[in-house]
Design a protein that fits this description.
The chain is α+β, with helices and mostly antiparallel strands and about 450 residues long. It folds into four domains: about 160 residues, no CATH class; about 80 residues, no CATH class; about 70 residues, Roll (SH3 type barrels); about 80 residues, Alpha-Beta Plaits. Helices cover about 55% and strands about 15% of the residues. It has 14 helices and ten strands. The strands form three sheets. Strands 6-5-4-3-7 form a five-stranded antiparallel sheet. A three-stranded antiparallel sheet has the order 8-10-9, covered by helices on one side. Strand 5 and strand 6 form a beta hairpin. The longest helix has about 30 residues. It is elongated and about 130 Å long. It starts with 5 loop residues before the first helix and ends in a 23-residue tail after the last helix. The mean pLDDT is about 75.
Length: about 450
């Protein structure tokens, strides 16, 4: 044994202690009584859970069309129904522990059973209750191992070992226990910040009386405030002095002056865009660089454009300030488009404008204000006389609406109804000189 590594010696020592405890329990009537109480308490908890769980599920499940605060609260509480079994068992064994301690003066077996039930509750919480992916990973790799160590009675020992193990980082040093606590507390705080940010965003976006740009600006301001408070709260809980971050702040300032100036420029440009409201979510824009699409999201660094073929284009906010931007939407204003067509040279072109304008005006999406359909003569082409009809619509002539194809269909039908020929290219070949034929 003395020649074995220290960690193996400690493991064998813990195993011997566990065997001694188990042997003592096997030979103790009080231990058997406590074990019986544990089994009875678990069976009672299982029976109560089977009777009570369907009732609670029915009471806490709202209708699918209900989305009010009360319905959301009921759905939130419903997530914790799987914890019903370990909670009831924990309560019953707690009562049993008090009884056995008063009768036998010992409750070690029930205390161990309580820790096992607590471990079961933690496992159910991570596996079935928690839905957030980040919290699930945090629970799987930190919370469940901590609960297992607590159930085995090794948590205090492992905590002391982690606290004694120091990791040097230059002039700073941290214990492993500090790093574990920092990960747990930081993860919980920033998850809470993310949840708070989602709730505040939903609340702000529901204020329809605010301009879209102001809603976006308020959302970004709330996000910065929430995560700023979360950071300060984490530093305060972990006992980290903010003055120790002065060097880091200076490094960030130097980085902004050199490598991060583009990010700072895009951030300030995003604030200007939100304040001015010249381009906001839902607008269809086209930039000088050729990027065009509907703004579906505006972040602190860039705007996300969605094209009509479903692709997303990330455009830095600075491009909206330093380049020319064409906004086709402008909060739903009308836009003018034109549909070109041609007619044969044999046509009386004086009748064309009245026929086409009347046909296009019948389309339900064509506006009369600010101006109705206007058919104009554009030129004399190689194969026919070129016309174009201008029309006004609400929205963009692409994507779901497809205004121009419908207008072209109306033009085609109107010309056909009036026996007007739509030309196609003609070519005339002229042969000069005498045609020579050969005979065999």
């Amino acid at each position: 044994m003395e020649q074995q590594p220290e960690i193996i010696q400690q493991a064998l020592g813990f195993a011997q202690q566990g065997w001694d405890i188990a042997e003592g329990w096997l030979l103790s009537p009080a231990a058997w009584s406590q074990f019986a109480i544990l089994v009875v308490a678990f069976l009672i908890a299982l029976w109560v859970t089977r009777k009570l769980r369907p009732i609670l599920t029915k009471l806490l499940t709202p209708a699918e069309d209900q989305n009010g605060y009360l319905a959301q609260a009921r759905r939130f509480v419903l997530q914790f129904v799987p914890l019903l079994l370990p909670l009831i068992a924990y309560g019953l064994t707690g009562v049993g522990e008090n009884v056995t301690r008063s009768v036998f003066g010992s409750g070690a077996v029930i205390a161990f059973g309580n820790r096992l039930i607590l471990f079961l509750a933690v496992r159910i919480l991570v596996k079935e209750v928690i839905q957030d992916s980040f919290l699930k990973v945090l629970g799987k790799y930190i919370l469940i191992p901590v609960a297992a160590l607590h159930a085995l009675g090794l948590l205090a020992l492992v905590t002391a070992k982690l606290d004694a193990t120091v990791v040097p980082l230059g002039n700073l040093s941290f214990s492993l226990l500090f790093l574990v606590r920092f990960a747990i507390v930081g993860g919980a705080i920033f998850w809470l910040g993310r949840w708070s940010n989602a709730q505040s965003t939903a609340l702000i976006q529901s204020q329809k009386e605010m301009r879209p740009a102001m809603r976006e600006l308020a959302t970004k301001a709330a996000e910065i405030a929430i995560f700023g408070i979360a950071f300060l709260l984490l530093m305060n809980i972990m006992g980290i002095s903010l003055t120790s971050l002065a060097v880091l702040g200076g490094a960030i300032g130097v980085g902004l002056g050199f490598g991060l100036q583009k990010i700072a420029s895009n951030f300030i440009s995003g604030v200007i865009l939100l304040l001015e409201g010249q381009a906001t979510v839902g607008d269809y824009v086209e930039l000088d660089g050729g990027e065009a699409g509907t703004i579906v999201k505006m972040t602190a660094r860039a705007a996300i454009l969605e094209t009509f073929d479903g692709r997303w284009i990330v455009v830095p906010n600075e491009d909206f300030i330093t380049t020319r931007v064409v906004n086709y939407s402008d909060s739903g204003s009308a836009n003018r488009y034109e549909a070109p067509f041609s007619v044969s040279y044999d046509t009386d072109i004086n009748k064309i404008p009245a026929i086409i304008e009347a046909a296009v005006a019948k389309l339900d999406f064509v506006l009369e204000d600010p101006d109705g359909p206007d058919c104009e003569l554009r030129g004399f082409g190689d194969s026919g006389v070129d016309f174009a009809v201008e029309f006004w619509v609400n929205g963009i002539d692409d994507g779901k609406n497809k205004f121009t194809p419908k207008v072209l269909f109306a033009i085609w039908n109107a010309l056909k109804d009036n026996n007007i020929e739509i030309p196609y290219p003609h070519r005339m070949v002229e042969l000069k000189g005498e045609l020579v034929t050969r005979s065999e």
